[in-house]
Amino acid sequence: MDEKVIVTGASGFVASHIVNILLSERFHVIGTVRSKEKAEKLLYAFEHYYPYATLEVEIVPDIGVNGAFDALFKKHPDTQHVIHTACPVSLGEGVTLEQSYLIPAVHGTRNILEATQRLGKNVKHVVITSSFVAVNNKSRANDPDFINFEESWNPITWENAQEDSREAYAAAKKLAEQYAWDFYEKNKDELPWTLTSINPPLVFGPQIFEWGLDRNQLNFSAEMINSALKLPPDFEGPFDFPNGLCSDVRDVALVHMLPLRNGNLAGQRLIPICGTGLRGKNYEDGKWNLQRILEVIHKNFPELKGKVPVGKLQNNKQYLDKVTNYNNDITCRLTGIEFKHFETTVRDTVKQILEYNSSRSKT
């Protein structure tokens, strides 16, 4: 019988790629989503990709509610692996930062771990999706001698993150991951499963299904690239912002699957970043800004000449050098992955968007 894997938040950008890899590897996947509509859409899409595969989708409307995953484990007691990606963000008028970020992140993590402890008696591996913001020590950002790596932690507290939504998000992701590791350390002698966290920076890359493009606004990272395509050719900048580190969604998905097969990844925090790997060790390729996106567009899509801005930064390296310093050698050594280059990631994303827009214009 195929090994059963629970994937929470299965309709998400990263999670749908994870489900894709798991099904291609003949895992029996139980995905969770928040609505019947999402469940039906996900099932229909993957049935066309993998008619032979086993995919079930269960509805968990609110992962922050106590016991949110209990019914799931009672229905699937033979589950062997858990990949927890779900972390919905609720924005809107009257919604506090705690309701938007902290409760879904921390309570969702608590609920999946407690349910796995009590009811997942056959679970061998738990993988949680964290973020590079849980790693990144921004207080040392201007220190050229400081390098973030797999054992680094963002020092921000929730009390100090109340004035800015980005800080609140970073604090919530850090606190959720810390909760997971504290829970594991406290209970590991009696737990039959291992824990691994995946800490990617901003995740770029193509959608797994066309309906991921069928909306007025794409997911956050894809919309950054889509927005660059929409800029008027006489746009004056700034071209050094937005900026940061990035990863490719296909690599991020693969890294989520590997702990289910590679025991050396137990107890690790893994940081997939574009362009890095044992052979390349290119710590600069994963640093990006708008200028780099535009350069990839012009290099690979000559038909867009005169339709999108070229960008006016003559020495972009001086701006990219201000992006966070990091080292993910531990991740590269343990996984053996040569992570996709920034150009490949952006090129594939732009190609998909252009092809989709072209097909829509013909209908």
From TrEMBL:
Checking InterPro entries in the record gives: Epimerase_deHydtase (IPR001509), NAD(P)-bd_dom_sf (IPR036291), NAD(P)_dehydrat-like (IPR050425)
- Source organism superkingdom: Eukaryota
Q: Which UniProt keywords apply?
A: Oxidoreductase
From the Swiss-Prot or TrEMBL record, give the protein name: LAMI_0B00716g1_1
Q: Is the keyword Oxidoreductase in the record?
A: yes
Q: Which residues are in the NAD-dependent epimerase/dehydratase domain?
A: 5-212
Q: What is the lineage of its organism?
A: Eukaryota, Fungi, Dikarya, Ascomycota, Saccharomycotina
The GO terms this record gives for MF are: oxidoreductase activity, acting on the CH-OH group of donors, NAD or NADP as acceptor
- What family name appears in the similarity comment? Belongs to the NAD(P)-dependent epimerase/dehydratase family. Dihydroflavonol-4-reductase subfamily.
Question: Pfam families from the xrefs?
Answer: Epimerase (PF01370)
Keyword Glycoprotein listed: no
